[in-house]
Amino acid sequence: MATRTLLRIDSRCGWRWRAALPVSYAGLARGQSTTAAAEPQRPEMKTEVPGPKSLQLLKELSAVQESGAVQFFADYERSFGNYIADVDGNLMLDMYTQIASVPLGYNHPRVIQAFKDPKNQAAFVNRPALGLFPSGDHVQRMRQTLMSVAPPGLSNVQTMACGACSVEHGQKAMFMSYQRRKRGGEGPSKEEMESCLKNQAPGAPNLAILSFKDGFHGRTMGALAVTHTKWIHKLDFPAPDWPVADFPKLRYPLDQFTRENEQEERRCLNMVRDLMATWEKKGCPVAGIVSETVQCEGGDNYASASFFQGLQDIAKENGASLMLDEVQTGCGATGKFWAHEHFNLRSPPDVVPFAKKMLTGGFYHSDEQRPTESFRIFNTWVGDPSKMALLEAVLEVIKKDGLVDNSKVIGDYMLNGLLDIQNSFPAILSGVRGLGTLAAVDCPDAATRDKIITLMKNKGVHAGTCGTATLRLRPTLTIQRKHVDIFLDIFRGVLKDLK
Amino acid sequence: MATRTLLRIDSRCGWRWRAALPVSYAGLARGQSTTAAAEPQRPEMKTEVPGPKSLQLLKELSAVQESGAVQFFADYERSFGNYIADVDGNLMLDMYTQIASVPLGYNHPRVIQAFKDPKNQAAFVNRPALGLFPSGDHVQRMRQTLMSVAPPGLSNVQTMACGACSVEHGQKAMFMSYQRRKRGGEGPSKEEMESCLKNQAPGAPNLAILSFKDGFHGRTMGALAVTHTKWIHKLDFPAPDWPVADFPKLRYPLDQFTRENEQEERRCLNMVRDLMATWEKKGCPVAGIVSETVQCEGGDNYASASFFQGLQDIAKENGASLMLDEVQTGCGATGKFWAHEHFNLRSPPDVVPFAKKMLTGGFYHSDEQRPTESFRIFNTWVGDPSKMALLEAVLEVIKKDGLVDNSKVIGDYMLNGLLDIQNSFPAILSGVRGLGTLAAVDCPDAATRDKIITLMKNKGVHAGTCGTATLRLRPTLTIQRKHVDIFLDIFRGVLKDLK
Fold first, then answer.
1. Longest dimension (CA), chain A
2. How far is A427 from chain B (nearest CA, A)?
3. Contacting B residues, span 226-285, partner chain A, CB-CB under 8 Å
4. Could you tell me if A132 lies within 8 Å of chain B, comparing CB atoms?
5. For chain B, what is the radius of gyration of the CA atoms?
6. Distance from CA of residue A169 to its chain's centroid?
7. Known catalytic residues of B?
8. Which of A66, A307, A316, B421 has the smallest number of Cβ neighbours within 10 A?
């Protein structure tokens, strides 16, 4: 891997650097686009994907674990920027990026620099019990990283190891704040303290979280209780009897179906209201409402700002908290740093879990959600400072390179391209939609969608799926027009062949 | 931080190296003990702990999160081997090691070497969605790390990010295998597939996990449902109505109370049997039994091999799986690599979660616990290959240096020392117990225990707590007699002052 030094970071659409090695990069003029120089120009395909080496490794991996989800074995040393390499020598434009979890692309020079910075070494080789013994630079790092991009109005943050844990502990914060309000400032009773140890009321109260059909929040028991996507995620696991509301099924493009969509959102909000009342009557009041800002795993389903405003109103009317899950939508891809900034909420959401592109899990929360006792939100690691050392570099690049704006500009460009293609293939594609570089389009059925994905992959574009028959696009934040052009070109070619 | 090169690894009780820098290490003879040379000779205390710098940082951290659990801010660059440094210039012998999660001590040269190895760089800067796109070296790394230390008879492993997630997904494996057995080879029905999405039976069946009083398994909803330690862990969170059996309350030393302890264990096993029958009758059969091998957070409570054999028998009689949680007890500290190897079980446990000293989370499991469909045990990251790159170095040192045996030898030495001290202070100490270097002793009450901990800390020995009034010791695997001597000396001094 070549050592590259960061030269200038002043562009809206990507970083720029001077390559020290290999020699072929050395002639780069100041200001010449990075990716143009150091990234491959195009995908390069040697075999079908998965190729023979991937298939052999898959066989070996299957000896020690169920591995049916593996698509191919990657070569992360050779992957670069927006391109992922595999062990069979293929190089694909990556429009899925590890389920939307690669912020700047592979082997970004600034991230490598942070990894090699001697001041970060101790964080990588000595993982602390962060809630007990944080390092001396932890506070400053929290300020420079997580707090520097905190959602407006949220001044508390708690790190966690992954997305599911972040949702789980965010739920705990909501349960605690609900019970605290109910106690009106009194401490817990002896009966509560004793009964909770046996999983019994009143200490373990009968409380619910309201969630949405097709919502996805993770796969541990609490996160899974509010997840309603595919049976494969949920079958065989006991689950609490919590209310599940319909999420609006909007028609796209949104501006052509304003009235129908408003009606649909009203219907869903009324359902939320009804469910809250029903569960209250059942003696299992709703302590919190959980929604993604865009339902990703469930099919890239959008709802309007006005829907989320309404949802927040309902939460407030009922004394419940509102969690907006930004695990997949946070960190700039939607054209705002947090997707919920698009919603113009009257006050901040109460809890905002994050992970994926943020490299560390965690959740932001309001003062009201802050536990009043220690060890309530806790575990051994509660995150990983080494991920924050990398995040520091990532956020620096996002800010200096204007990558949040880039997501908007390139996202619009991509969306227009997708609409064009949809117009060319109306029998195959429908419902093109997107926000920033989050983009999706529906196919007639899963088989057609999967065939398109496979054909694209074999031509060098790696895309994802969601919902039942949706193609899901999740590029890096450094994507440029030329990448979009390559994707659109190959997508169009595949659809032509399919016809 | 000095760069040190590994010279010889041939001792039972610690590694040996030649120091390249600073100059003061350069004269070390071949074979001279590492820790003797490179570690501090003794604790060095400048202030009380937490000192003024820690207190200032704590104030700042509290601005962004509830931080009451923080004990001090550490200086991980200056920490070395068995000594942890803090920001106030104090250097403490660490007998707690980040809640038992530091295998070799701080800044171990071999771990630093793995961190700096260019072949590992890609794993640190490109975190994959491991279940979809593992790297080409993943299979080999799995073999060299996790599979090379797999518990006897368990040939499957699934990585996860942390201990709680490992327990949660281990529980899911038990629920799935239970339902699979019930279906007798048939696939799930349409009704099951649809109802599970709404958290309803039959897809989300009414099944339980049996767990133990004072057991601790984590703080996400599924792990917390089988955790029964302190109210602070559980209060305000809804919990499933699952059976909770008594864990044996044994009297120590075990060999002096054989008959009483046998009786107590029989009582608890009978209770398990009764609870299983009761829940079966309730229509909520027990799909799995969960226990730690040693109850750590709950007070370092031991049970005999015969108890665990009985527990496995009951599980098998009832068609339930057995999970033995080794998150805190695994990775060599008990004098066996896995604590359950002490139990001579007739067949392997079904699920063994790990984390902490293993650096990555995960769980081993039998073939029967392997999901038959993909994406059942899954999330975006499912672990972190960079942790496995470090684990590779850790396991290499453990094996070459015989650190599992070291735990036994030094553990016995420490236990004898503790028994001596207990004999000197019978009014203050009781119940000294241990397995390998896992060791604990009871104080009359929490206040006395906490006072001892504080006094020890201010003299340079950092120890932990568990249960209601127990002092918990969790040194690294590289601990030597001289460390134990320093600890015992300071412990004895503190108890004398207390008298």
1. 74
2. 29
3. 228-242, 244
4. yes
5. 23
6. 17
7. 216, 325, 356, 380
8. A316
Q: Is the Cβ pair B206, A123 closer than 8 Å? A: no
**Would you call A134 and B169 a contact, using CB atoms and an 8 Å cutoff?**
no
Cα–Cα nearest to A477, from A413, A398, A389: A398
Residues in chain B within 8 Å Cβ distance of A236: 172, 175-176, 178-179, 188, 196, 203-205
**Cα distance between residue A470 and residue A492, in whole Å:** 16
Find, in chain B, the residue whose alpha carbon is nearest to that of A372: B66
Cβ–Cβ contact B117 with A under 8 A:
no
Spatial distance between the Cα atoms of A438 and A449, rounded to a whole number of angstroms:
18
The conformation of residue B106, written as its DSSP 8-state character, comes to B
Q: Where are the beta strands (DSSP E) in B240-360?
A: 244-245, 286-292, 321-325, 351-354
Report the C-alpha gap between B330 and B361 in whole angstroms: 11
User: At A4, which helix (H) or strand (E)?
Assistant: strand A4-8
Q: What positions of A carry a catalytic annotation?
A: 216, 325, 356, 380
A307 has a pLDDT exceeding 50: yes
- Burial class for B255, CB neighbours closer than 10 Å (0-12, 13-18, 19+): exposed
Q: Is the pLDDT of residue A40 over 60?
A: yes
Q: Find residues 182-221 of chain B whose CB sits inside 8 Å of chain A.
A: 188, 192-194, 196-200, 203-208, 213, 218-221
In chain B, the largest separation of any two C-alpha atoms, in whole Å, equals: 74
Model confidence over B203-257: pLDDT tens digits?
Answer: 999 999 999 999 999 999 999 999 999 999 999 999 999 999 999 999 999 999 9
Residue in A181, A236, A372 to test binding to B, most B beta-carbons within 10 Å: A236
Interface test with B, best of A111, A126, A354, A386 (most B CBs within 10 A): A126
Q: Report whether pLDDT(A30) > 50.
A: no
A157 and B CB contact within 8 Å: yes
- Are B231 and A196 within 8 A, CB to CB? yes
Q: How far apart are CA A96 and CA A490, in angstroms?
A: 15
Three-state helix/strand/coil letters over A348-406: CCCEEEECHHHCCEEEEECHHHCCCCCCCCCCCCCCCHHHHHHHHHHHHHHHHCCHHHH
pLDDT, tens digit, 9 for 90 and up, residues B64-116: 999 999 999 999 999 999 999 999 999 999 999 999 999 999 999 999 999 99
Contact B390 A125 (CB under 8 A): yes
Q: How far apart are CA B89 and CA B79, in angstroms?
A: 10
Backbone angles phi, psi at A370, to 5 degrees: -75, 130
Q: Domains of chain A by range and CATH?
A: 1-38 (no CATH), 39-113+400-498 (3.90.1150.10), 121-385 (3.40.640.10)
The per-residue pLDDT for B175 is 98
Rounded to an integer, what distance in angstroms lies between the CA atom of residue A301 and that of residue A293? 9
> Are the C-beta atoms of residues A168 and A223 closer than 8 Å to each other?
yes
Which residues are within 8 A (CB) of B59 and not within 5 positions of it... i.e. 6 or more apart?
A: none
Q: Are B377 and B130 a contacting pair, CB within 8 Å?
A: no
Inform me whether the C-beta atom of residue A2 falls under 8 Å from chain B C-beta atoms: no
Residues pairing with A37 in the sheet: none
